[in-house]
Specification:
By secondary structure, the chain is of the alpha/beta class. It has a domain of about 130 residues: Rossmann fold. Helix content is about 35%, strand content about 25%. It is built from ten helices and ten strands. The strands form two sheets. The protein has a six-stranded mixed β-sheet, sandwiched between helices. α3 packs parallel to α6.
Length: about 250
């Protein structure tokens, strides 16, 4: 029996971080992080630049390796898994800066998002679902991704992540560099994703918007979690208002 795999039941959170520490060289980026995401939730991480929000997502998806602590997904310890195994288990990471393949078409980017899958007919059906969720992408399916607007590129980045059929989506700074009208559109899409059964861990510079759509939130400061609670409580918390809601 593999002792690294625990039995999986509905009683487990979809994600749990226990006493997580991450170093970049000699710098301690995350310190004693304890975090839970329950199935079906939108949970947001807020904090200043450099607080450790992106590092938290990178540790979960194994872009960086923790120094110590545990990462548990649906009751299974995944701390020492490889990045491709994380995707196969049902975790997709939509990174800051989009990272789309600019010299490939919209359609090809979506196909590449399904690289872990071999169910060809279902992949085609899921591409159509992405075009229904993101009508602008449907209109530009044969357009090179690098010629899309910033908002369209963000939509493509999210759609590409969804092509792996994740149960948990790690979404990093989806509003970065976008006009307010496009940001509202992106956040409406994020809210709609909840109804499709995708759980979301959201890192977002716009704390006000993030807390409006989230169930719960965690505040990160200098690599530590300093505050956590129901999103509707955090948005009215004087400490949060003063530091992040300006």
């Amino acid at each position: 029996m593999n002792t690294d795999i625990q039995s999986n039941t509905q009683t487990y959170p979809i994600l749990e971080l226990k006493d997580l520490y991450v170093n970049y060289g000699g710098i301690q980026a995350l310190k004693d992080i304890n975090l839970i995401v329950n199935n079906g939730e939108v949970v947001t991480l807020i904090g200043a630049n450099g607080a450790g929000k992106t590092t938290t997502l990178r540790a979960i998806s194994k872009i960086v390796s923790p120094k110590s602590g545990e990462i548990i997904y649906s009751g299974r310890k995944i701390t020492h898994r490889q990045p491709h195994e994380i995707v196969q288990l049902g975790i997709a990471h939509c990174p800051e800066g989009r990272r789309i393949l600019t010299r490939q078409t919209v359609f090809d980017n979506l196909i590449l998002g399904a690289y872990i899958r071999d169910d060809t007919a279902q992949i085609k059906a899921d591409i159509q679902r992405q075009f229904e969720l993101f009508p602008r992408l449907a209109q530009r399916r044969q357009q090179l991704a690098g010629t899309l607007s910033g908002g369209e590129q963000q939509m493509l980045a999210i759609a590409r992540a969804l092509m792996s059929k994740p149960k948990l989506l790690l979404l990093d700074e989806p509003s970065l560099g976008l006009a307010p009208a496009i940001v509202r559109e992106i956040f409406t899409i994020i809210e709609n994703l909840r109804s499709t059964g995708v759980t979301i861990l959201l890192v977002e510079q716009n704390a006000n918007l993030a807390l409006q759509i989230a169930d719960r939130g965690y505040v990160l400061e200098a690599g530590y979690i300093t505050l956590t609670g129901i999103a509707s409580d955090l948005i009215t918390d004087e400490r949060v208002k003063k530091a992040y809601l300006g």
